[in-house]
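Possible regression after last week's pipeline update?

I re-ran a chain I had predicted before the update to compare outputs. Posting the input and the new output here so someone can diff against the archived version. Not blocking, just want to make sure nothing changed silently.
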Amino acid sequence: MSKILFVVTGAKFWTLADGTQHPTGFWAEELAAPYRTFVEAGHEIVVATPGGVVPVVDQGSLAADANGGQAQADAIKAELEQIDQLRQPVALESVELADYAAVFYPGGHGPMEDLAVDATSGAVLTSTLVSGKPLGVVCHAPAALLATADESGTSPFAGYRLTGFTNAEETQAGLADKAKWLLQDRLVGLGVDFQEGEPWAEHVEVDRNLYTGQNPASSRALAEHMVKAL
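New output (post-update):
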């Protein structure tokens, strides 16, 4: 059994362009589906957040229309309630990468608030990339890659092929015109080779040890690719 580190946003809101706070957190499916996949494959999960704060789920990700119906929404909510690690996360600052076989970042708008500017998270991402260990990042979580840039704006992820939540998806979700910045734009500015799939469809990119998924529908497939590499 290997240990896998889940780096989860500690943000409860996302600050919009007009300064208002949009309630958020982590996206349910993007945590639950990979968690289930890794555990079923025999791996142990450790959840870490900045400062060890207890993460919150984006309530929008528990809605019936986000889960294909109320039954599925109730099921994923119950599944999250059974994950004890979410109630007792470790502090990201205390993490020793050598203890883990892989690192995974669930999305939600939360990472755009905290992980995008978190130097500790940026160091974890950089160290994982250099180590060759599988690194999985899904949906809005690639915002955390912005914290890997140095003072000149250079990131070790520049040139890597990856995906993430697209401008088209943010527009269709109704938040693009309210955001301070859009994830796809910032990632392109970071110098990555951004690959855009059809909105809301499963889309996974693998480049060396970097595994990325475009949206919630990509979460399970992303984890399955990582399991094969472990």
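Follow-up from reviewer: compared with the archived run. The chain has one domain: 3-229. Marking as no regression found.
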